[in-house]
Amino acid sequence: DVKVTQSSRYLVKRTGEKVFLECVQDMDHENMFWYRQDPGLGLRLIYFSYDVKMKEKGDIPEGYSVSREKKERFSLILESASTNQTSMYLCASSLMGSSGGEQFFGPGTRLTVL
Amino acid sequence: DQQVKQNSPSLSVQEGRISILNCDYTNSMFDYFLWYKKYPAEGPTFLISISSIKDKNEDGRFTVFLNKSAKHLSLHIVPSQPGDSAVYFCAASDWRDDKIIFGKGTRLHILP
Q1: Residues in A touching B105 (Cβ below 8 Å)
Q2: pLDDT tens, A56-104?
Q3: How far is A15 from chain B (nearest CA, A)?
Q4: Best residue in A37, A49, A56, A94 to probe B by mutation, most B CBs within 10 Å?
Q5: Which of A27, A101, A96, A89 minimizes the C-alpha distance to A64?
Protein backbone atom coordinates (compact mmCIF):
# COMPACT_ATOMS: atom_id res chain seq x y z
CA ASP A 1 0.00 0.00 0.00
CA VAL A 2 1.50 3.29 -1.13
CA LYS A 3 2.15 5.75 1.60
CA VAL A 4 2.96 9.41 1.16
CA THR A 5 3.64 11.29 4.36
CA GLN A 6 4.04 14.98 4.97
CA SER A 7 6.00 16.35 7.90
CA SER A 8 3.25 18.50 9.38
CA ARG A 9 -0.54 18.59 9.17
CA TYR A 10 -0.77 22.18 10.39
CA LEU A 11 1.85 24.90 10.39
CA VAL A 12 1.77 28.55 11.40
CA LYS A 13 4.61 30.82 10.33
CA ARG A 14 5.31 34.54 10.26
CA THR A 15 5.84 36.68 7.19
CA GLY A 16 9.44 36.55 6.04
CA GLU A 17 10.25 33.23 7.67
CA LYS A 18 11.86 30.42 5.67
CA VAL A 19 9.54 27.43 5.60
CA PHE A 20 10.35 23.81 4.80
CA LEU A 21 7.65 21.31 3.90
CA GLU A 22 8.83 17.73 3.73
CA CYS A 23 7.31 14.83 1.82
CA VAL A 24 8.35 11.19 1.91
CA GLN A 25 7.00 8.28 -0.15
CA ASP A 26 7.72 4.62 0.44
CA MET A 27 6.91 3.06 -2.94
CA ASP A 28 10.10 3.82 -4.85
CA HIS A 29 8.25 6.20 -7.17
CA GLU A 30 10.34 8.27 -9.53
CA ASN A 31 7.89 11.17 -9.86
CA MET A 32 7.05 13.54 -7.04
CA PHE A 33 4.86 16.63 -7.13
CA TRP A 34 3.95 19.61 -4.97
CA TYR A 35 0.52 21.23 -5.34
CA ARG A 36 -1.37 23.89 -3.49
CA GLN A 37 -5.12 23.80 -3.11
CA ASP A 38 -7.14 26.99 -2.67
CA PRO A 39 -10.92 27.42 -2.66
CA GLY A 40 -12.24 27.95 -6.16
CA LEU A 41 -8.83 27.38 -7.72
CA GLY A 42 -8.50 23.61 -7.45
CA LEU A 43 -5.12 21.91 -7.40
CA ARG A 44 -2.30 23.93 -8.89
CA LEU A 45 1.10 22.41 -9.59
CA ILE A 46 4.02 24.24 -8.01
CA TYR A 47 7.00 22.01 -8.84
CA PHE A 48 7.63 18.42 -9.80
CA SER A 49 10.57 16.09 -10.04
CA TYR A 50 11.18 13.07 -12.26
CA ASP A 51 14.33 11.93 -10.54
CA VAL A 52 16.82 12.71 -7.82
CA LYS A 53 18.28 16.20 -8.18
CA MET A 54 15.92 16.94 -11.06
CA LYS A 55 13.16 19.51 -10.84
CA GLU A 56 10.73 21.18 -13.19
CA LYS A 57 8.60 24.25 -12.66
CA GLY A 58 4.88 23.79 -12.58
CA ASP A 59 2.22 26.43 -13.11
CA ILE A 60 2.93 28.60 -10.06
CA PRO A 61 6.60 28.27 -9.01
CA GLU A 62 7.11 31.90 -7.97
CA GLY A 63 8.12 32.24 -4.33
CA TYR A 64 8.94 28.53 -4.00
CA SER A 65 11.91 26.25 -4.50
CA VAL A 66 12.33 22.49 -4.12
CA SER A 67 14.97 19.96 -3.24
CA ARG A 68 15.21 16.28 -4.11
CA GLU A 69 18.41 14.79 -2.71
CA LYS A 70 16.98 11.30 -2.20
CA LYS A 71 14.47 9.42 -4.30
CA GLU A 72 11.95 9.08 -1.51
CA ARG A 73 12.03 12.67 -0.29
CA PHE A 74 10.85 15.88 -1.94
CA SER A 75 11.02 19.15 -0.06
CA LEU A 76 9.18 22.38 -0.78
CA ILE A 77 10.84 25.57 0.42
CA LEU A 78 9.27 28.95 0.89
CA GLU A 79 12.30 31.24 0.95
CA SER A 80 10.46 34.16 2.55
CA ALA A 81 6.89 33.30 3.47
CA SER A 82 4.16 35.75 2.57
CA THR A 83 0.50 35.87 3.55
CA ASN A 84 -0.60 34.92 0.02
CA GLN A 85 1.14 31.59 0.52
CA THR A 86 -1.39 30.63 3.17
CA SER A 87 -2.85 27.47 1.65
CA MET A 88 -3.21 23.69 1.77
CA TYR A 89 -0.06 22.08 0.36
CA LEU A 90 -0.30 18.59 -1.09
CA CYS A 91 2.51 16.27 -2.08
CA ALA A 92 2.02 13.39 -4.51
CA SER A 93 4.05 10.65 -6.13
CA SER A 94 3.70 8.35 -9.14
CA LEU A 95 5.65 5.86 -11.19
CA MET A 96 7.78 7.06 -14.09
CA GLY A 97 6.05 6.54 -17.42
CA SER A 98 2.71 6.26 -15.70
CA SER A 99 1.21 8.82 -18.02
CA GLY A 100 -2.38 8.78 -17.03
CA GLY A 101 -1.51 6.67 -14.09
CA GLU A 102 -2.57 7.34 -10.60
CA GLN A 103 -0.85 9.89 -8.40
CA PHE A 104 -0.82 9.08 -4.70
CA PHE A 105 -1.30 12.01 -2.37
CA GLY A 106 -0.19 12.75 1.15
CA PRO A 107 -2.63 14.10 3.76
CA GLY A 108 -1.66 17.71 3.14
CA THR A 109 -0.14 20.49 5.21
CA ARG A 110 -2.31 23.46 6.02
CA LEU A 111 0.06 26.41 6.21
CA THR A 112 -0.98 29.73 7.69
CA VAL A 113 1.34 32.71 7.24
CA LEU A 114 0.64 35.58 9.63
CA ASP B 1 -6.07 29.01 -19.87
CA GLN B 2 -7.94 26.17 -18.23
CA GLN B 3 -7.43 22.88 -19.99
CA VAL B 4 -9.75 20.96 -17.66
CA LYS B 5 -12.98 22.67 -16.66
CA GLN B 6 -15.52 21.79 -14.04
CA ASN B 7 -18.17 24.42 -14.45
CA SER B 8 -20.29 23.49 -11.45
CA PRO B 9 -18.62 24.53 -8.19
CA SER B 10 -21.21 22.61 -6.19
CA LEU B 11 -23.99 20.09 -6.56
CA SER B 12 -26.66 18.84 -4.14
CA VAL B 13 -28.30 15.45 -4.62
CA GLN B 14 -30.80 13.49 -2.56
CA GLU B 15 -29.49 10.33 -0.95
CA GLY B 16 -30.31 7.32 -3.13
CA ARG B 17 -30.53 9.35 -6.34
CA ILE B 18 -27.97 9.60 -9.13
CA SER B 19 -25.17 12.17 -8.91
CA ILE B 20 -23.75 13.37 -12.21
CA LEU B 21 -20.56 15.41 -12.19
CA ASN B 22 -19.41 16.96 -15.45
CA CYS B 23 -16.04 17.89 -16.86
CA ASP B 24 -14.89 19.45 -20.13
CA TYR B 25 -11.41 19.58 -21.59
CA THR B 26 -9.78 21.53 -24.37
CA ASN B 27 -6.56 19.67 -25.13
CA SER B 28 -7.08 17.00 -27.79
CA MET B 29 -3.75 15.40 -26.80
CA PHE B 30 -5.21 14.19 -23.50
CA ASP B 31 -5.52 10.45 -23.63
CA TYR B 32 -6.29 9.49 -20.04
CA PHE B 33 -8.82 10.90 -17.63
CA LEU B 34 -9.16 10.45 -13.89
CA TRP B 35 -11.51 11.37 -11.08
CA TYR B 36 -10.24 12.05 -7.58
CA LYS B 37 -12.27 12.46 -4.41
CA LYS B 38 -11.20 14.71 -1.56
CA TYR B 39 -12.51 15.01 1.97
CA PRO B 40 -11.65 18.10 4.06
CA ALA B 41 -8.21 17.97 5.72
CA GLU B 42 -7.22 14.92 3.67
CA GLY B 43 -5.32 14.39 0.44
CA PRO B 44 -7.21 13.49 -2.74
CA THR B 45 -7.73 9.80 -3.40
CA PHE B 46 -8.05 8.18 -6.78
CA LEU B 47 -11.57 7.10 -7.66
CA ILE B 48 -11.82 5.91 -11.25
CA SER B 49 -10.18 6.49 -14.61
CA ILE B 50 -10.78 5.99 -18.32
CA SER B 51 -8.53 5.71 -21.33
CA SER B 52 -9.35 7.67 -24.46
CA ILE B 53 -9.86 4.43 -26.37
CA LYS B 54 -12.93 3.68 -24.27
CA ASP B 55 -16.20 5.52 -23.80
CA LYS B 56 -17.26 3.98 -20.51
CA ASN B 57 -15.67 2.53 -17.41
CA GLU B 58 -17.59 1.17 -14.47
CA ASP B 59 -16.51 0.34 -10.93
CA GLY B 60 -19.29 -0.51 -8.52
CA ARG B 61 -21.48 2.55 -7.98
CA PHE B 62 -19.16 4.73 -10.07
CA THR B 63 -19.24 5.03 -13.85
CA VAL B 64 -17.25 7.42 -16.00
CA PHE B 65 -18.42 8.27 -19.50
CA LEU B 66 -16.19 9.84 -22.13
CA ASN B 67 -17.40 11.69 -25.21
CA LYS B 68 -14.26 12.49 -27.20
CA SER B 69 -16.00 14.39 -29.97
CA ALA B 70 -17.49 16.77 -27.40
CA LYS B 71 -14.35 16.72 -25.22
CA HIS B 72 -16.59 15.94 -22.29
CA LEU B 73 -16.62 13.39 -19.52
CA SER B 74 -18.97 12.72 -16.66
CA LEU B 75 -18.93 10.77 -13.43
CA HIS B 76 -22.13 9.00 -12.40
CA ILE B 77 -22.65 7.83 -8.83
CA VAL B 78 -25.60 5.50 -8.32
CA PRO B 79 -27.03 5.35 -5.74
CA SER B 80 -25.61 8.37 -3.95
CA GLN B 81 -24.69 7.82 -0.32
CA PRO B 82 -23.89 10.25 2.53
CA GLY B 83 -20.20 9.26 2.41
CA ASP B 84 -20.05 10.52 -1.16
CA SER B 85 -20.21 14.11 0.09
CA ALA B 86 -16.78 15.44 -0.89
CA VAL B 87 -15.00 17.52 -3.49
CA TYR B 88 -14.50 15.71 -6.79
CA PHE B 89 -11.65 16.65 -9.09
CA CYS B 90 -11.59 15.78 -12.75
CA ALA B 91 -8.09 15.34 -14.17
CA ALA B 92 -6.45 14.57 -17.48
CA SER B 93 -3.06 13.61 -18.79
CA ASP B 94 -1.13 13.53 -22.04
CA TRP B 95 0.88 10.39 -22.94
CA ARG B 96 3.97 12.55 -23.48
CA ASP B 97 4.07 13.66 -19.86
CA ASP B 98 3.63 12.21 -16.38
CA LYS B 99 1.88 15.33 -15.15
CA ILE B 100 -1.86 15.41 -14.47
CA ILE B 101 -3.92 18.53 -15.10
CA PHE B 102 -6.68 19.03 -12.55
CA GLY B 103 -9.96 20.89 -12.79
CA LYS B 104 -11.08 23.23 -10.02
CA GLY B 105 -13.35 20.66 -8.42
CA THR B 106 -17.05 20.20 -7.72
CA ARG B 107 -18.32 19.99 -4.15
CA LEU B 108 -20.98 17.29 -3.91
CA HIS B 109 -23.50 17.42 -1.06
CA ILE B 110 -25.63 14.35 -0.49
CA LEU B 111 -28.85 15.38 1.25
CA PRO B 112 -30.61 13.02 3.69
Answers
A1: 42-43
A2: 999 999 999 999 999 999 999 999 999 999 999 999 999 876 655 689 9
A3: 23
A4: A37
A5: A89
Which chain B positions have a beta carbon within 8 Å of A58's beta carbon?
99
CATH of A4-96, one of 3.30.160.270, 3.40.50.620, 1.10.3720.10, 2.60.40.10: 2.60.40.10
CB burial of residue B53 (10 Å; 0-12, 13-18, 19+): exposed
The CATH code of the domain that includes B16 is 2.60.40.10
Predicted confidence at residue B5, as pLDDT, reads 96
CB B92 within 8 A of CB B100: yes
pLDDT 10s digits, A30-52:
999 999 999 889 999 999 999 99
Domains contained in chain B, number: 1
Nearest chain A residue to B4 by CA distance is: A42
Q: Kindly list the residues from chain A whose CB atom is less than 8 angstroms away from the CB atom of residue B33.
A: 100
Domain that holds residue B92: 4-111
Distance from CA of B8 to the nearest CA of A (A): 11
- Residue A63 host element (H or E): none
Check residue A1 and give its pLDDT. 67
* One-letter amino acid of B93: S
**CA of A1 vs chain B CAs: smallest distance (Å):** 13
| Euclidean distance between CA atoms B102 and A10, whole angstroms | 24
pLDDT value at position B15?
A: 97
pLDDT-based confidence at B97, cuts 50/70/90?
confident
A99-113 average pLDDT score: 87
